[in-house]
Write a structure and sequence with these properties.
By secondary structure, the protein is of the alpha+beta class. The chain is built from 4 helices and 8 strands; from the N terminus they run H-E-E-H-E-H-E-E-E-E-E-H. A 5-stranded antiparallel beta sheet has the order 7-6-5-4-8.
């Protein structure tokens, strides 16, 4: 079982239902558990009702394709406020948003800033220290939105 096989099996199924596949997480123990993050194409969220509704169809599809066993735990979830950005389309949708980015190799280097642009070769990130960073797709280890909760003091100005 691998992420690519699961993605290929689920993506058309979810697209037909009006949902987008966001991320697949395999947590490998004795038997790998599987977490699938999904969002509705219009609302960009996923309710508890939708998770329940989608769960049985996804489970049946994955079992038919021998991508899930009875011993594995399947979790269907919303990507949440600090959702991961995985595909180029995800990045394009969130241009102008604050992100946290982890770089491959580079001693676990992380950068936070505003996503400025998405190019064929990667992304452009405006750092808080007035710098601009261009990052190739192959260098990105992870990326997620950063949500800053305003305190009462900040909102009063």
């Amino acid at each position: 079982m691998n992420r690519e096989s699961i993605w290929s099996a689920l993506n058309p199924y979810l697209e037909d239902l009006g949902y987008s596949l966001v991320q697949i997480i395999l947590q490998i123990k004795k038997e790998p558990d599987l977490c699938i993050m999904i969002e509705h194409k219009k609302t960009l969220g996923l309710s508890l009702y939708e998770c329940e509704k989608l769960s049985s169809g996804i489970q049946q599809l994955l079992k038919e394709k021998k991508l899930l066993t009875d011993e594995q735990i399947l979790e269907i979830s919303s990507p949440g406020v600090e959702r991961p950005l995985v595909t180029p389309d995800h990045y394009r949708r969130y241009i102008g948003s604050r992100i946290l980015l982890g770089i491959q190799g580079n001693k676990g280097q992380k950068y936070e800033g505003i996503l400025q642009n998405v190019l064929g070769s990667g992304i452009v990130l405006a750092l808080d220290q007035d710098g601009i960073l261009s990052i190739e797709w192959s260098s990105i280890r992870f990326c997620k939105l950063v949500h800053k909760f305003e305190t009462e003091k900040e909102t009063k100005g």
